[in-house]
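Progress against Task 2.4 (sequence-to-structure conversion) is shown through the following example record, which the project officer requested during the mid-term review.
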Amino acid sequence: MLIVVNCLLPYRDGVVMLQKPARGWWGLPGGKVEPDERWPDAVRREVLEETGLNVSDMRLCGVHLIRIAAGEDTAEKRLTLAQFAARRVSGDLLPASREGMLQVVSPEAVMHLPMDEGDRQMIRYTLWASTQADAEVAFGKFEYTADRTLIHWEMTPALPAESVSVQA
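Structure tokens generated for the chain above:
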């Protein structure tokens, strides 16, 4: 199974978002975990490669199972996504990334960016959890059609109703 990590990066007055050119969707910087690589090490490596920033004091906010159905020319994909939030970020944001466009976005504006609907739910929880000292790690399951339409998802714990400031 493929393991992917990504990380919420507080930077200046917002969070760093990455827009991938293939679909124009926004997401958190991150990427694949190399064989025998620890998840936090993969986060540090991927964030540095994609953004030029160094991260430390990271917190695991979510572990999510993702299944993308097979298409006419593609096999079914299954992956695990580990989503972190950094508490400390240092360095200067790259002017451009080989992975796509980088932008610092206010936390309130993040939920209004075009993005994968599963990512939206995961990021919504991570934005909230990054501000809570005692937030639990979320565990989710997300199922997609071959063309990346979200058809079912579940995540526990659920985002508290009083967290409206990070909801769309």
